[in-house]
Structure prediction request, 100 residues.
Amino acid sequence: MKIQLQKTLLGRTLCRLAGEEKGAVMMEYVVLGVLLVAAVVGAVIVFSRGTGNAFDIMTKTVAGDPDAAKEAAGAARTEAGEGTEQSDSFRHEVVNTDIP
Prediction:
């Protein structure tokens, strides 16, 4: 009966709407792949500044320019300190805020 239904446009549409399971496993892999890519993109967004600084320092070190690597490390340390100060300031504001 299924073979006869697929010969007509209406039959093919009904079979598609009825939920043929052909390719369902592939779709599961596609969904897992999309979730994995989303997790990687999220991690890169969250850690991008620190990761970028680390790769910059490593690249300069491997290239044989230790002075530039030390300078990049100092800049990264300063940037991290500023971020810590901003975080502490924000946390202090949130903790000391009166809630009506």
Remarks:
- Residues 2-95 form one domain.
- The longest helix spans residues 24-62.
- The chain has one domain: 2-95.
